[in-house]
Amino acid sequence: MPASQQHFTAWFTDDPSVSDKCVLDIFKDEIVGYETGLSGFTTDEPVWGAAGRPILNIPTAMDVNSGRRDTLRQAEQLLRDAGWEAVGGWSDNQSGYTITVEQA
Question: Which range of residues forms the domain containing residue 24?
Answer without folding.
Answer: 8-103
